Amino acid sequence: MHFTYWLGHTIFRELARGFFDFRIIGSENLHFDGPAIIAANHVSFLDPPFIGQAFHEPLHFFARKTLFDHPLIGLVMRDWQTIPVDRDKPDTSGLKTTIRLLKSGKKILMFPEGTRSSDGKLQKAEAGVGLFLAKTGAPVLPVRIFGTFESLPRGGKFPIPTQVTLVIGQKYQPDLVGASARGRDLYQTVADEVMQRIAGLTL
């Protein structure tokens, strides 16, 4: 674990437990070896650090490519094992990096919805997470976060202390062999199943 990642991980873990009454349901599902896509709902900028600090091993994240243009932010993003993505002009570099990381045994946090919810409710999954699963055969760990929307919703400027709970589901292997769909239809079908698993996680 890079020093900057470890430092941020440690600081945010203390903040989460000290100011947000952070709790985990299903913590026994957190610890396993090997690669996985950690698939979560997305309601706030706080989601990545809250989810990341729950794991003892480092996760890889996605972030807008433009953030890397800032000298300091870009440096931190790289140290925090962040994968740059360009939503306006998608290229294959992020795809290749993600596939390489998963095949080397790493864990990557993904938000199947693609963007933050504007009302805190679950959104429809985009096909992207299904593509990564189809290309790598990686398992999925569904998780659902509660409370970050109330702390820092889309359009909010400063977080306010709230109770935040992270519900951890059971890791599963998507059925890619038995699926009748192919190509983008397959990716969407797999992504929809991921969102169904996330929706099934409740307090």
CATH superfamily: Glycerol-3-phosphate (1)-acyltransferase
Which range best describes the helical content: under 10%, 10-25%, 25-40%, 40-55%, 55-70% or over 70%?
25-40%
Topology pattern, helix = H, strand = E: HEEHEHEHEHEHEH
Q: Supply the number of helical segments.
A: 7
The largest sheet is: 5 strands, mixed
Helix-strand category = alpha/beta
Considering the chains and any ligands shown, give keywords for the structure.
about 200 residues; alpha/beta; Glycerol-3-phosphate (1)-acyltransferase; 5-stranded mixed β-sheet; two-stranded parallel ribbon; 7 helices; about 35% helix; about 15% strand; globular
Task: Set down the secondary structure blueprint.
Layout (H helix, E strand, L loop, with lengths): L2 H17 L3 E3 L10 E5 L6 H8 L6 E4 L6 H9 L2 E4 L6 H12 L3 E4 L17 H9 L3 E7 L1 H4 L13 E4 L14 H17 L4
Parallel strand pairs: 1-7, 2-5, 2-6, 3-4
Antiparallel strand pairs: 6-7
Helix pairs in contact: 1-2, 5-7
Give an account of the 3D structure.
By secondary structure, the protein is α/β, with parallel strands linked by helices. It has one domain: 3-Layer(aba) Sandwich (Glycerol-3-phosphate (1)-acyltransferase), CATH 3.40.1130. It is 37% helix and 15% strand. It contains 7 helices and 7 strands. The chain has a 5-stranded mixed β-sheet, sandwiched between helices. A two-stranded parallel sheet has the order 3-4. Helix 1 crosses helix 2 and helix 5 packs across helix 7. The longest helix is centred in the N-terminal third of the chain and has 17 residues. 33% of the residues are buried. The model has no long low-confidence stretch (mean pLDDT 90).
